[in-house]
Design a protein that fits this description.
Strand order of the largest sheet: 4-3-2-1-5
Strand content: 15-25%
Helix content: 40-55%
Shape: elongated
Number of strands: 8
Distance between the termini: 127 Å
């Protein structure tokens, strides 16, 4: 047995030494890969939320991508060390990837859209958004779909690509919103009186923001009425309550001031 090993060494010593060197380098590559992978994952975990949106799937996704990305690079490097032609392997993987991509293009499209939505922070959990004909409060952002709840409590699961591919109205992001309260008065009524009534309503409402300041405008002159509009800004949390209260308040105050709320009229004459 010893003689056989000796003969093997004498015959293939160069090859054995080369294999040993390659194994040593491969072990070093694996060790550095593991260290670098763990280090990169720790960096992702410690990243400031200002630079990395705090979503339930963003960090695990990035950590998985880093882990397997480094693994693939290490495997390719080791194969190259042992003289294996990785170009053909990469070509096969590329063709396979294209085939899978074509078969799963909708899923991949939603996946990429989800990553972009999460990464850019275009929408966040708890915000009220609208896109196309869909509107609702964001309950959850997944990699493939976004879960919304409408104002009347309906569950909506929207593909991420349908959100990213359309303009998004985010009613929550700016923290404030303008409301327009309009009412019509008769042609015979005084516009100045209507403005004074509106100003009194503004002065009595402490939830209106001072900046931007509320406005009272003569909005339009229509067939049977003069349209007066109050424009005021308020915080998002107060918007709907004030809006509903204002509609009732404006009607009552205008009637108390003797202003008329005209119905549509049309005069028909014989030719």
């Amino acid at each position: 047995m010893g003689q056989q090993i000796l003969n093997l060494w004498e015959t293939h010593s160069d090859t054995i030494i080369e294999i040993a060197k390659n194994l040593a380098v491969a072990i070093i590559i694996i060790a550095f890969g593991i260290i670098f992978s763990k280090g990169a994952q720790k960096v992702i975990l410690k990243t400031n939320p200002k630079h990395l949106p705090e979503h339930g799937v963003v960090r695990p996704l990035l950590m998985t991508l880093v882990k397997y990305g480094i693994l693939i690079i290490c495997v390719i490097m080791i194969l190259n060390i042992f003289g294996i032609n990785t170009a053909s392997i990469l070509a096969v993987l590329g063709v396979a990837g294209i085939a899978v991509g074509l078969a799963l293009k909708d899923i991949l499209g939603n996946l990429v859209s989800g990553i972009i939505l999460l990464g850019m922070g275009s929408i966040r959990k708890g915000e009220f958004i609208e896109f196309t004909s869909v509107s609702g409060t964001v309950k959850e952002i997944n990699l493939l779909t976004t879960i919304l709840e409408t104002m009347d409590g309906i569950y909506i699961s929207a593909p991420n690509s349908s959100i990213l591919g359309n303009p998004i109205k985010n009613f929550t992001r700016n923290g404030k919103r303008r409301m327009d309260i309009s009412i019509g008065i008769a042609y015979s009524d005084s516009v100045d009186t209507a403005f004074n009534v509106m100003q009194g309503i503004i002065d009595a409402e402490s939830r209106f923001l001072k900046d931007p300041a509320p406005q009272i405008i003569l909005h339009s002159i229509e067939e049977s009425k003069v349209k007066i509009t109050l424009r005021a800004w308020t915080l998002i949390d107060n918007y709907w309550n004030i809006n509903w209260e204002m509609n009732k308040n404006v009607k009552e105050k205008f009637e108390e001031a003797g202003l008329h709320l005209p119905l549509p009229q049309r005069v028909i004459t014989n030719a």
